[in-house]
Amino acid sequence: MKKIILALFLFSLFLPILALARIGVGVGTGKIEIDQPMKAGLIYDLPPLVVLNTGDEPSDYGVTTQRRENQPELIPEQSWFSFEPVEFFLEPGKTQLVNIRLTLPVKGAKPGDYFTFLQAFPVKKTEVVGTSIGVAAASKLYFTVAPSNIFVGFYYRLTSLISLYSPWSHIIIFVFLAAVFGILAKRFIKLNFKVSITKK
């Protein structure tokens, strides 16, 4: 009987250690505020988000956007954002730099002030007495979209893609222009070369 009581006592001492094991998340980027108005159609690389495993067990993590309740600012679409890496694994105390790309649509980005949370979260949820609790940490993102029309938006998207895929975009443009010039030259320019040999 004493052995059973001793075993139960030792097990009860071990329970708090099990209860303290947790999954945690933090972000090392407090706020991202873009000072200059953004233009519809452009592609922007935002400052990266630093994600930290603040818990004491390893986990997979992801990043998404999240609105706040009754916000006065406009809400950007989740599809405007891409994250690299989308999902990643972190040991306790380790950090991951997540690159953020914001692609403003040519049509559909209303002019005005926008706000969203850039939220990091563990993919695995922590269990507390049979209940799943989702933990998350977030950085605030503020930006403004300047007024524009659809033609300006297409122009900005084209310039963004050229810049993004440089130098290959420049090579493709050069090859395309050279091909067009070759076709036009063949069609409209005729060169006649006449060689004559004179005998003395």
- CATH fold type: Immunoglobulin-like
Structural class: alpha+beta
| Assigned CATH class | Mainly Beta
Sheet with most strands: strand arrangement: 2-11-8-4-6
What is the domain tally?
1
Oligomer: single chain
Rg, Å, rounded: 29 Å
Q: What is the overall number of helices?
A: 3
**Regions with little confidence, pLDDT below 50 for 5+ residues:** 4-20, 128-132
Terminal CA distance:
134 Å
CATH superfamily: Immunoglobulins
Overall average residue pLDDT: 78
Quote the beta fraction: 25-35%
Index terms:
single chain; 200 residues; alpha+beta; Immunoglobulin-like; four-stranded antiparallel β-sheet; 3 helices; 28% helix; elongated
Q: What does the model show?
A:
There is one protein chain. This protein has one domain (2-148): Immunoglobulins (Immunoglobulin-like, Sandwich). 28% of the residues lie in helices and 33% in strands. It is built from three helices and eleven strands. The strands form three sheets. Strands 2-11-8-4-6 form a five-stranded mixed beta sheet, with no helix packed on it. Strands 1-3-7-5 form a four-stranded antiparallel beta sheet. The longest helix is centred in the C-terminal third of the chain and has 21 residues, at 168-188. It is elongated.
